[in-house]
Amino acid sequence: MENRSYVGDETWNADTLPVGGLAGNQPHHHHNHHHKHHTTVDLKAPQSTSDEKPPLREKWGRNIEFLLSCVALSVGFGNVWRFPYTAFKNGGGAFVIPYLIVLFIIGRPIYYLEMVLGQFSNRGCVKVYDLAPAMRGIGVGQTVAIFTVITYYASVLAVTLRYLVASFNPELPWAKCDPTWPDCVDSSRLGSIALGPNVTQPKTSADLYFRKTVMHAADSLDDGLGYPDWRLALCLVASWICIVGILIKGIKSSGKVSYFLAIFPYIIIAVLLVRSLTLEGAWTGIKYFFEPQWDKLLTIEVWYEAVTQCFFSLTICFGGLIVYSSFNDFSNNIYRHALIITSLDTVTSLVAGCVVFGVIGHLAHVTGQTDISKVVQSGPALTFITYPDTIAKFDFLPQFFSVLFFFMLFLLGIGTLIGIVTSVITAIHDQRPDIARWKIVISVGLAGFCIGLVYITPGGLIILELLDYYGATLVTITLAVFELLTFAWIYGVNRVCKDIEFMLGIKTGLFWRVCWGIVTPITVLFILLVSLVQYKPQNVPLGYNALGWCLYAFAVLQLPCWAVYAILQKQGLVWWDRCKAVLRPMADWGPEDPTKRSEYGTFIEEYKQQSVMDRTGNLVEKVRRKLFK
After folding, report:
1. Alpha-carbon distance 623 to 578, whole Å?
2. CB 111 within 8 A of CB 515
């Protein structure tokens, strides 16, 4: 598969390139060279003999398993853990409005686009760039970014498991203050406290339990990272055992688990929402969450955070969605699935926000703090402070509800991690099918565990935010620009729409075409450029910022490196023809089923014949054809 040549015939344009073994009636000689490298492909002849035919890709057991797995992938840590602290950091209502706008013009279009190309090609996040092999480095870079996310998501999962185990105590350990904690107020307290003019603002026992007992959190990295907490290390081992155990048997086993992973968490979220809204002072926090701060809407930082949160919330531009879609049946109605999942994801984020901000409003009431933004410290720890604080105030069996909540959070984390780890495994397995899948799963698990130990040190939370910014957020937005450029302009919006028409039998509307070709890529590019111009180093020692930039460079430079490699692999052409050839689909691009691929070749040939008369025109006319033809 990897050594099939690109179709470089000069008579073809990239957006009408024949694929799948049918090239129309162009005369040429038949050559079948069975060399190890650089096979010359005869477009009329069969692509391979029965001995060479690759096995069909593993499929979901049922379509509902794909839908629920996508729900578990997209509706997870990004919504319940990351969204609330990102919204709190960016002013509550000042963040929600940009977030909803970004979901509509960026999140949903990219979600549908990635679903389409994954299902159409039955390829993973690297192999999908067979549509333009020079751009394969995008998929490799996204794999680096998603592995970075995997390492710290797993550590968050370990903290969740630590709380789950602690919930079985006769009394919740964070409900009462430890005698050694100064300026502490019990999280189980329901009333408010009066503060004198010179009294230090107290912190809740849930806050101090997380920072002092669970994480042993350091205020800075000046004294180094410290050593991992052994309890969290054991929880990290258990987390990775769960992930590896589910994935080691393949996609069908994770599909069966999705029924529970996707549905059960909503029951617990509903219970917590009701309890949060009934706390005294909760509506002050809810108002802060939804009330717009119009002055902040003009700051680029809020929009940048909205875009990145959109990527994390929907898990787009990471490769996981393309991988999940690649295990679909060819004719699955992903248009409907894309609308359902993106809508459900938005609702879940807002509900999780209401739970957290309701608790923050209550904490403001309890501690006597009038400024909501100063009630708790924003950051990754926010979820492990607000939710436990809510549960500590339950009058009836708080331990029971604590077990339910952290079990739910654990399931959400497992659901998300299964999807993104599958992305990495598939990227490796697509390139090296000779390596047994179980060996790849175990290797990824071991690597993820070893790196994850960094995040459960006293300085781990600071490192988490550092690598989240450089290795995940910044990399993802940068590569998202090139992903959209590749799909919308190199491959072509018109070609994507023809693929949808062939696969689903539906015409693509104007909204999708305009978003894919113009609105979405320009918006993401603008956010990226402004964020780079206004860059401020993270508040850590200089060496850590340098490490972050090295990680960013390693991921992003995959693009030019793989492009050069693709050009050098093209033999027998002058360099300019090589460059053009590697921006065209490979000879075997299209559906994996040979019959479907032959039908697709005929379909595209007919489209080419209809379009061949429209090759002339000015730039505006060419753009119009690329988007709307």
Report:
1. 24
2. no
| Tens digits of residue pLDDT in 376-406 | 766 677 778 887 887 888 777 889 889 988 9
Nearest to 393 by CA among 113, 625, 186, 91: 186
CB contact set of 280 (below 8 Å; sequence gap of 6+): 190, 192, 362, 365
Flag whether 75 is marked binding: yes
What's the full length of the chain, in residues?
629
CA distance 418 to 244: 9
* Tens-digit pLDDT profile for residues 521-542: 999 999 899 888 888 898 888 9
Quick one: pLDDT band at residue 81, thresholds 50, 70, 90? confident
- Sequence-distant (≥ 6) Cβ neighbours of residue 200 within 8 angstroms: 183
- The torsion angles phi and psi of 322, rounded to 5 degrees, stand at -60, -40
Residue type for position 480: A
∠ Cα 524 525 527 (to 5°): 65
Ranges of each domain in the chain: 63-191+201-262+299-351+380-567
Which residue, among 43, 44, 46, has the nearest Cα to 7 in the 3D structure? 43
Sign of the torsion formed by the C-alpha atoms of 380, 384, 389 and 391 = positive
**Nearby residues of 367 by Cβ (< 8 Å), 6 or more positions away:** 185, 192, 193, 195, 201, 202, 203, 204, 375
Point out which residues pair with 586 in neighbouring strands. Answer: 6
Task: List all residues 6 or more positions away from 242 whose beta carbon is below 8 Å from its beta carbon.
Answer: 414
Using alpha carbons, select from 295, 317, 290 the residue that is nearest to residue 106: 317
Pick the CATH number of 63-191+201-262+299-351+380-567 from 1.10.260, 1.10.3120, 1.20.1740, 1.10.10: 1.20.1740
Residue 243 near residue 414, CB atoms below 8 Å = yes
Q: Is the pTM of this model over 0.90?
A: no
Render pLDDT for 197-213 as a digit per residue (tens, 0 to 9): 556 678 889 989 999 99
What is the per-residue DSSP string for 358-402?
A: HHHHHHHHHHT---GGGSS--STTTHHHHHHHHHHT-SS-HHHHH
Token reading at 63? 């379509």
Q: Is 313 annotated as a binding residue?
A: yes
State the alpha helices, DSSP H only, in 43-107. 63-74, 77, 83-89, 93-102
Concatenated DSSP letters for 414-454? HHHHHHHHHHHHHHHHHH-TTS-HHHHHHHHHHHHHHHHGG
